[in-house]
From TrEMBL:
Domain of life: Eukaryota
Protein name per UniProt: UBA domain-containing protein
Location of the UBA domain: 91-139
Species this protein is from: Alexandrium catenella
Residues covered by region (Disordered): 142-192
Amino acid sequence: YGDGRAGIAPHQHDFSSATFSFGAPRVFLLDERPLLLCDGDVLVFGSQRHSVPKMPGLRDERISLSLFWHPTWRSDAGYTEEQLERWALQKQDELLWAAQRAEAVEQLYNFGIPEGAAVVALAQASEDVNAAAEALLRGGLGSMASGAHSQGREQQQQQQQREKQQEPNDLPVAAPEEQLARQTRGRWRHKR
């Protein structure tokens, strides 16, 4: 389209389309619903009626690249029922994994861990959210990044031994109940 004076009259195809838009933004009517396609947008649609109306005030160029295919590709491909079932099961497994991964990332994020660090830690901890959290809280993706899971366990055991060897005088002292009651102001305060 050289400018807004060019357009495409309403029409319809018996196949699916993917339209890639480059250049000036233009209105695209899909079943009479206006959609603004901007530079780099992709619109995938079926056999709906569509058009590009004229926009005389527009002076910039636009290129529209459309790819077409018949929606009956699966029947033409000759896949067996066994293959289709196997792919459906694989897709279910992938969706389940994605849901579990998203939940684990959210759990770590709720502890104040950045999303990127949570994703890396989960991958390095073989999707074990507890191991990922421990590694992150120890401040060390380093031990996991090198693949030395046992080194992380050794550090944890050493920390536990240090805690056991701590003298009783070094242990924190419990605060009196009255002091605790005064400190519980805020949204987690117990109502009496």
